[in-house]
Amino acid sequence: MRLFLAINFDAQTKEHILAVQGRLREAGRGSFSHPENLHLTLAFLGEVEPRREAAAREALDSTAVPPMKLIFDHAGRFRREGGDIWWLGLGTNKALITLQKELSAHLQGKGFILENRRFSPHITLARQVLLHKALDESQLLGIPFGTEADTVSLMLSERVNGKLTYTQRHAVRGKR
Ligand code: ATP
Ligand code: MG
After folding, report:
1. Looking at residue 61, which CATH number applies to its domain?
2. Residue 157, ligand 1, Cβ within 6 A
3. How many distinct structural domains can be found in the chain?
4. Which residues contact 45 (CB under 8 A, 6 or more apart)?
5. What is the pLDDT of residue 116?
6. In which domain, by residue range, is 169 found?
7. Which residues of the chain have a pLDDT value below 70?
8. CB of 153 closer than 6 A to ligand 1?
9. Does the active-site annotation cover 122?
Protein backbone atom coordinates (compact mmCIF):
# COMPACT_ATOMS: atom_id res chain seq x y z
CA MET A 1 0.00 0.00 0.00
CA ARG A 2 1.15 3.49 -0.86
CA LEU A 3 1.17 5.80 2.17
CA PHE A 4 2.00 9.39 2.96
CA LEU A 5 1.43 11.88 5.77
CA ALA A 6 -0.30 15.12 5.05
CA ILE A 7 -2.30 18.09 6.21
CA ASN A 8 -5.72 18.30 4.58
CA PHE A 9 -7.74 21.49 4.18
CA ASP A 10 -11.21 22.65 5.10
CA ALA A 11 -13.75 23.68 2.46
CA GLN A 12 -13.08 27.40 2.77
CA THR A 13 -9.34 26.99 2.32
CA LYS A 14 -9.94 24.74 -0.67
CA GLU A 15 -12.08 27.51 -2.19
CA HIS A 16 -9.11 29.87 -1.91
CA ILE A 17 -6.76 27.32 -3.42
CA LEU A 18 -9.23 26.58 -6.22
CA ALA A 19 -9.44 30.28 -7.06
CA VAL A 20 -5.69 30.27 -7.64
CA GLN A 21 -5.94 27.05 -9.62
CA GLY A 22 -8.69 28.67 -11.72
CA ARG A 23 -6.32 31.44 -12.82
CA LEU A 24 -3.84 28.77 -13.87
CA ARG A 25 -6.56 27.00 -15.87
CA GLU A 26 -7.24 30.19 -17.78
CA ALA A 27 -3.60 30.39 -18.83
CA GLY A 28 -2.86 26.81 -19.69
CA ARG A 29 -3.81 23.20 -19.93
CA GLY A 30 -2.60 20.27 -17.91
CA SER A 31 -3.52 17.74 -15.28
CA PHE A 32 -5.19 19.70 -12.50
CA SER A 33 -5.38 18.38 -8.93
CA HIS A 34 -8.92 17.40 -8.00
CA PRO A 35 -10.40 19.51 -5.17
CA GLU A 36 -10.73 16.46 -2.91
CA ASN A 37 -7.05 15.68 -3.42
CA LEU A 38 -5.58 19.04 -2.40
CA HIS A 39 -3.19 18.52 0.51
CA LEU A 40 0.19 19.39 1.96
CA THR A 41 2.58 16.42 2.12
CA LEU A 42 4.78 16.19 5.22
CA ALA A 43 6.31 12.79 4.56
CA PHE A 44 6.09 10.25 1.77
CA LEU A 45 6.43 6.58 2.71
CA GLY A 46 5.81 5.12 -0.72
CA GLU A 47 4.95 1.44 -1.04
CA VAL A 48 4.83 -0.29 2.35
CA GLU A 49 3.66 -3.72 3.50
CA PRO A 50 0.12 -3.53 4.88
CA ARG A 51 1.30 -4.96 8.21
CA ARG A 52 3.60 -1.92 8.55
CA GLU A 53 0.70 0.50 8.60
CA ALA A 54 0.41 0.16 12.38
CA ALA A 55 4.00 1.37 12.75
CA ALA A 56 3.17 4.47 10.71
CA ARG A 57 0.16 5.15 12.93
CA GLU A 58 2.33 4.82 16.02
CA ALA A 59 4.90 7.26 14.63
CA LEU A 60 2.11 9.76 14.03
CA ASP A 61 0.56 9.14 17.47
CA SER A 62 3.87 9.96 19.14
CA THR A 63 4.17 13.29 17.30
CA ALA A 64 2.97 16.51 18.90
CA VAL A 65 0.75 18.38 16.45
CA PRO A 66 0.40 22.03 17.44
CA PRO A 67 -2.31 24.28 16.05
CA MET A 68 -0.61 26.28 13.31
CA LYS A 69 -1.38 29.24 11.13
CA LEU A 70 -0.38 28.45 7.57
CA ILE A 71 0.06 31.29 5.09
CA PHE A 72 0.01 30.75 1.36
CA ASP A 73 2.18 33.57 0.13
CA HIS A 74 3.87 32.49 -3.08
CA ALA A 75 3.27 30.37 -6.14
CA GLY A 76 5.68 28.88 -8.59
CA ARG A 77 6.54 26.13 -10.99
CA PHE A 78 9.01 23.32 -11.38
CA ARG A 79 10.12 23.20 -14.97
CA ARG A 80 9.57 19.86 -16.61
CA GLU A 81 10.04 18.49 -20.07
CA GLY A 82 6.51 18.09 -21.47
CA GLY A 83 4.83 20.43 -18.99
CA ASP A 84 5.56 22.09 -15.67
CA ILE A 85 4.32 21.38 -12.16
CA TRP A 86 2.65 24.45 -10.69
CA TRP A 87 2.31 24.81 -6.94
CA LEU A 88 1.24 27.06 -4.10
CA GLY A 89 3.93 27.67 -1.48
CA LEU A 90 3.73 28.31 2.25
CA GLY A 91 5.54 31.09 4.03
CA THR A 92 8.32 30.23 6.48
CA ASN A 93 6.75 28.52 9.46
CA LYS A 94 8.84 27.28 12.36
CA ALA A 95 6.06 25.21 13.92
CA LEU A 96 5.43 23.43 10.63
CA ILE A 97 9.12 22.71 10.06
CA THR A 98 9.50 21.41 13.61
CA LEU A 99 6.45 19.20 13.14
CA GLN A 100 7.77 17.82 9.85
CA LYS A 101 11.18 17.10 11.41
CA GLU A 102 9.71 15.39 14.45
CA LEU A 103 7.32 13.32 12.38
CA SER A 104 10.15 12.29 10.03
CA ALA A 105 12.35 11.29 12.96
CA HIS A 106 9.57 9.16 14.45
CA LEU A 107 8.90 7.49 11.11
CA GLN A 108 12.60 6.77 10.64
CA GLY A 109 12.67 5.44 14.19
CA LYS A 110 10.03 2.93 13.08
CA GLY A 111 12.23 1.89 10.18
CA PHE A 112 10.71 3.85 7.33
CA ILE A 113 13.12 5.20 4.75
CA LEU A 114 12.45 8.84 3.85
CA GLU A 115 13.99 11.05 1.24
CA ASN A 116 16.30 13.49 2.91
CA ARG A 117 15.84 16.38 0.53
CA ARG A 118 14.91 19.65 2.18
CA PHE A 119 11.25 20.10 3.10
CA SER A 120 9.71 22.74 0.86
CA PRO A 121 6.03 22.96 1.83
CA HIS A 122 3.81 23.29 -1.21
CA ILE A 123 0.49 22.23 -2.65
CA THR A 124 0.46 20.90 -6.17
CA LEU A 125 -2.11 22.77 -8.27
CA ALA A 126 -1.45 21.00 -11.55
CA ARG A 127 1.05 18.88 -13.39
CA GLN A 128 2.13 18.73 -17.03
CA VAL A 129 1.07 22.31 -17.55
CA LEU A 130 1.64 23.98 -20.89
CA LEU A 131 0.79 27.67 -20.92
CA HIS A 132 -0.91 29.30 -23.86
CA LYS A 133 -0.52 32.76 -22.41
CA ALA A 134 2.04 34.39 -20.16
CA LEU A 135 1.47 33.87 -16.45
CA ASP A 136 3.49 35.60 -13.83
CA GLU A 137 3.94 33.75 -10.53
CA SER A 138 2.84 36.67 -8.35
CA GLN A 139 -0.14 37.31 -10.64
CA LEU A 140 -1.19 33.71 -10.12
CA LEU A 141 -1.24 33.92 -6.33
CA GLY A 142 -3.30 37.07 -6.03
CA ILE A 143 -3.75 38.12 -2.39
CA PRO A 144 -1.97 35.87 0.14
CA PHE A 145 -4.31 33.93 2.40
CA GLY A 146 -4.07 31.81 5.51
CA THR A 147 -5.65 28.89 7.29
CA GLU A 148 -5.54 27.21 10.68
CA ALA A 149 -4.24 23.64 10.70
CA ASP A 150 -4.22 21.30 13.65
CA THR A 151 -4.42 17.81 12.18
CA VAL A 152 -1.99 15.46 10.47
CA SER A 153 -3.36 12.50 8.56
CA LEU A 154 -1.94 9.21 7.43
CA MET A 155 -3.18 8.88 3.86
CA LEU A 156 -3.53 5.95 1.52
CA SER A 157 -2.89 6.72 -2.16
CA GLU A 158 -4.37 4.40 -4.76
CA ARG A 159 -5.91 4.28 -8.20
CA VAL A 160 -9.61 3.45 -8.03
CA ASN A 161 -11.07 2.82 -11.49
CA GLY A 162 -8.20 4.81 -12.90
CA LYS A 163 -8.77 7.79 -10.60
CA LEU A 164 -6.12 8.89 -8.12
CA THR A 165 -7.83 8.51 -4.73
CA TYR A 166 -6.55 9.46 -1.31
CA THR A 167 -8.16 8.00 1.81
CA GLN A 168 -7.47 8.99 5.38
CA ARG A 169 -6.40 5.97 7.46
CA HIS A 170 -5.56 7.71 10.71
CA ALA A 171 -5.30 11.24 12.08
CA VAL A 172 -3.87 13.10 15.04
CA ARG A 173 -5.33 16.38 16.09
CA GLY A 174 -3.42 18.92 18.17
CA LYS A 175 -4.92 20.39 21.29
CA ARG A 176 -5.72 24.06 21.46
P1 ATP B 1 0.59 10.41 -9.08
O2 ATP B 1 1.94 9.95 -8.60
O3 ATP B 1 -0.31 9.25 -9.37
O4 ATP B 1 0.64 11.40 -10.17
P5 ATP B 1 0.48 11.85 -6.60
O6 ATP B 1 1.91 12.22 -6.82
O7 ATP B 1 -0.45 12.91 -6.15
O8 ATP B 1 -0.13 11.17 -7.89
P9 ATP B 1 1.53 9.92 -4.85
O10 ATP B 1 2.65 9.67 -5.81
O11 ATP B 1 0.91 8.75 -4.16
O12 ATP B 1 0.36 10.68 -5.56
O13 ATP B 1 2.07 10.94 -3.78
C14 ATP B 1 1.35 11.31 -2.63
C15 ATP B 1 1.95 12.59 -2.13
O16 ATP B 1 3.32 12.41 -1.81
C17 ATP B 1 1.92 13.74 -3.14
O18 ATP B 1 1.79 14.96 -2.42
C19 ATP B 1 3.29 13.68 -3.77
O20 ATP B 1 3.69 14.95 -4.25
C21 ATP B 1 4.14 13.26 -2.61
N22 ATP B 1 5.30 12.51 -3.07
C23 ATP B 1 5.30 11.53 -4.00
N24 ATP B 1 6.51 11.02 -4.19
C25 ATP B 1 7.34 11.68 -3.35
C26 ATP B 1 8.73 11.62 -3.05
N27 ATP B 1 9.53 10.76 -3.66
N28 ATP B 1 9.20 12.46 -2.11
C29 ATP B 1 8.40 13.32 -1.48
N30 ATP B 1 7.08 13.44 -1.69
C31 ATP B 1 6.55 12.64 -2.62
MG1 MG C 1 3.48 10.86 -7.39
Report:
1. 3.90.1140.10
2. yes
3. 1
4. 2, 3, 4, 5, 56, 107, 112, 114
5. 84
6. 2-173
7. 176
8. no
9. yes
Q: Which one, of 115, 120, 116, 112, lies nearest residue 76 by Cα?
A: 120
Q: Which of 129, 54, 26, 40 has its CA nearest to residue 91? A: 40
* Residues 134, 149 contacting (CB under 8 angstroms): no
Contact 164 CB / ligand 1 (< 6 Å): yes
Distance (Å) from CA 146 to ligand 2 centroid:
26
Cα-to-centroid distance, 165 and ligand 2 (Å): 12
The predicted pLDDT at position 176 comes to: 67
Catalytic option among 16, 106, 122, 170 = 122
Q: What is the pLDDT of residue 37?
A: 96
Buried b (16+ CB within 10 A) or exposed e, 52-91: ebebbbebbeebebeebebebebbbbeeeeebbbbbbbbe
Ligand 1 atom nearest residue 115's Cα: 28
Known catalytic membership, residue 106: no
Res 5: pLDDT: 98
